[in-house]
Amino acid sequence: MMSRKNFLLSLTILFFFRPIFSLDLTGLSDSLSGIFGDSYIDTNEGTTIFRSLNIPTGGRPESMGTAYTGLADDISFFDYNPAGSAVLDRTEAAVFHNAWIADSAMETIAGTIRNGNLGLGAQLKCFYVPFTEYNLYGERVAGSYYSETSFTANVAYNFLAGYDFKGIAVGANLRGSWRSIPDYTDNTTDEIISGSGLAQSALALMTDIGILFRLNGAKLYNDREPNIRIGMSLNNIGVALTGFGSSVKIDDPLPTRIAVGVSYKPFSILLISTEFRQPVNLQSLSTSGKWSAAIGTEIKITTFFTFNTGFLLQGANPRISLGSGFLIRGIQMNVNYTFDLTSSINPVNHISLSAKLRLSDRGRAEKQRHIDTLYTLGLARYSAGDFESAMEIWKEILQIDSRFDPAIEGIKAIERSESLYQHIKNIQSLD
Asked: Are 410 and 378 in contact (CB under 8 A)?
């Protein structure tokens, strides 16, 4: 549990960087633009609709530069790699708030649960911008919110999961998004046209597909959880429909993208994640957007406090993020501060927050402890030469977990020993 003093310290560390980024933002923007040059400008940017699908929900993923496809180790997986729900160690529920630009914001609520190798989840998020219409005299004649709301249902399964090989997690999201445009006036009588907003509203139906591999390599600490993750995903595959109230038609393409990411944890306190994305215009491949790349790091300062930083290159100017994670009365909080050079001619800074509850693991830890106890007992019997008893114990383990490799190898060792004993006995009998 985190004390009030530590909580205030965490916020102080995070917001300490805000004045640093505010010193000469224009100069820094010009410098970075000069480094990356015109060759990074995406001339096809903005040609897709439902752009809110590209806005991060906030919190930890944004603090790591949104390099999350190859990580997907918490409830933030929804917008990056749908395979993530099959390998989470606990049931999770979370809320996110991302204060975007021009008074816009993204609000998100999500939940996920894992039963064995099956992961399930749901997410609801809403992006909204205040909308106000004025007439020629400066009088307000209409006002509401422009919004894009998405609901996502997730399912994933971790195939061939075992003790040595952790399996191949495959997942999919099914998502429906609704773009709501408020009614507006006819500019002559200042009377609101009923249904005018509906005619320009839109419905998008889409799916995401993802895969996640976990393995060990160049690991400088002891832990059963693999330290390397490789993820691939294809996001926002679908169609958008407009013209409700008149003739429904297929609208502009969705922001479909292919993403490949790798995360590596060389030490127990250090995590590095990288990602490469390629937008794909399914209606016109030749007008697909320019690639983007991200890198993020997480440093574990204490058991209750982590520091994150990230860099996203998307277009000619980058996005730089800083964040921290800390525990408050059992709730995992993440605060992110982003210095954003991609969303406006002038640099824009914004803050995002997330609060996550890590709930039950549905008995997985207890099950693993029981298996470990049995395996240790089997080893003791094997060392004492009681092969029969050791085999019975290890077979009992396989009834609980058929892919517990140490028990499988132990049984094979006993079978080889018995086979060798029988072979020697047969040779002696021939003499």
From this structure: yes
